[in-house]
Amino acid sequence: MSVTSTNSSVAKSLERVMKRIAIVVSGGPAPGINAVIGASAIEATNRGIEVLGIHGGLKGAITDGAAAFLPLDIDNVSRIYNQGGSLLGTSRFNPLSAKDSEEKFLGLMKEQRIEGLIMIGGEGSATLSSMLSKRIPGLRIAHVPKTIDNDIPLPSGEKTFGFETARTVGTQVIDTLVVDAKTCHRWYLVETMGRQAGFLTIGMSLASGASLSLIPEEYQDRLYDPIEFAERIVTSIKLRYHMGKNYGVALLAEGLLDRLRPESSELLDENLRDELGRLTYSEVELGHVILPLIRERLHDQGIHDIEIKHKNVGYELRCARPIGADIEYARVLGYGAVESLSTREGSYMITRDVERLHFIPLETFVADGRVRGRTVDLDSDVYKLACRYMVR
Fold first, then answer.
1. Cα dist. 47→294, 352, 364 in Å?
2. Is 75 helix (H, G, I), strand (E, B) or coil?
3. Are 40 and 338 in contact (CB under 8 A)?
4. Taking the mean position of all CA atoms in its chain, how far away is CA 251?
5. DSSP state for residue 171 in the 8-state scheme
6. Span 338-352, pLDDT tens digits
7. CATH superfamily of the domain spanning 167-319
């Protein structure tokens, strides 16, 4: 992977004064977005660059046209750095997916005289950033990687901003559920975010002392029946039950849904799938699929005195107030985005390695037309340690 640091003489030789840039947020929220927006707008303004924020994300641009491009100045961004959510809103939308929306978006960028674009988004949005840089010759793009799933392969294993806040807030919720489980003699099945990667699930499991966690990386060899996941959980429940502990918390990454055979449950209806064939997680939850099977298995084995509850912990994390580490991280990346636009042609991923900013050409992340993701390494010491603390 090619890494260009801040002191590149080649980059500095390209430095020119930009007149106008835009900032847009794409995909799901993550703690720290406002810190990126604020730092980018302040740094650009201080360099004499006009800043526009695209409200409502890329979909907002198509829906509202020029009205979505609103000015950002220091007065309206200086105090947003520690706020959750996104001042500009966000949306999941690809304007290049249809001819009409592509023509409208490209026309808007030209009409608004946008010379540089800061895209704050995950791996799907990074793919879009790469595509836009090819569709709009001369447009400079700085992609700021954002996702609580931590599934973008940043150098040196650097985490994406928002992950630490999500893990911290999620751990607090799980800690409370662990106490409630012990107090009320029950089990909780907690569904956590993470479509492709189980970093958040494993992170919260280790930090909270959950009894069990299951992640999609463990089930890549084939598609499974719901009963196979149910039996894995029943095994943990029984082990603790015979220790005299009729309580516990199991964390289940939502990506496990995609490891189920579509025909294995009527809840996995094709109508609940998006254009890529993936289940729409807001429409179906893993707990609804496997909880009846768990209860049935326990009943068949003569265990009748365990209450099991299902809970989804996800949306509570995405717009949480960012912790200090994510605020600092995101502000550094926001500054770096403007530095990249000011000194580099093309499209770059903005990353940080300890105290150094790095600007990595987006094409180095692309394989088969998409930005590749990152998943939990099942041979890693962290994963092995997490397993040792589980009852499985």
1. 60, 22, 29
2. helix
3. yes
4. 18
5. H
6. 999 999 998 999 999
7. Phosphofructokinase domain (3.40.50.460)
Residue with tokens 């394989």: 367
CATH 3.20.20.370 fits 4-161+322-371, yes or no: no
Residue 2 predicted with pLDDT over 70:
no
Task: Indicate the residue type of 208.
Answer: S
Q: What is the pLDDT of residue 157?
A: 86
SS3 2: coil
**DSSP at 268:** S
Rounded Cα gap, residues 295 and 186, in angstroms: 12
Which of 284, 281, 299, 158 is closest to 234 using CA atoms? 299
Edge-to-edge order in the sheet of strand 20-25: 4-5, 356-361, 347-353, 140-145, 116-121, 20-25, 50-54, 69-72
pLDDT confidence of residue 18: 85
For residues 121 and 105, what is the distance between their CA atoms, to the nearest angstrom?
Answer: 18
Give the tens place of pLDDT for each residue, 72-106: 999 999 999 999 999 999 999 999 988 999 999 99
Could you tell me which residues come within 8 angstroms of residue 11 by beta carbon, excluding any fewer than 6 positions away?
Answer: 4, 343, 344, 359
Instruction: Give me the residue spans of the domains in the chain.
Output: 4-161+322-371, 167-319
pLDDT tens for 372-386 read 889 999 999 999 999
Q: Please give the Cα distance from 251 to 100 (Å, whole number).
A: 43
C-alpha to C-alpha distances, 266 to 81, 166, 174, nearest whole angstrom: 45, 32, 30
Amino acid identity of 7? N
| Residue 228 φ/ψ, nearest 5 degrees | -70, -40
Concatenating the DSSP letter of every residue in 21-49 gives EEEEEBSS--TTHHHHHHHHHHHHHHTT-
Per the confidence metrics, is the pTM higher than 0.85? Answer: yes
Residues assigned a catalytic role? 149
pLDDT (0 to 100) of residue 13: 45
Higher pLDDT, 168 or 6: 168
- pLDDT tens-digit map of 201-241: 999 999 998 999 999 999 999 999 999 999 999 999 999 99
Q: How far apart, in whole angstroms, are the C-alpha atoms of residue 37 and residue 26?
A: 13
Q: Which ranges of 137-245 would DSSP assign to H, the alpha helix?
A: 163-184, 199-208, 226-241
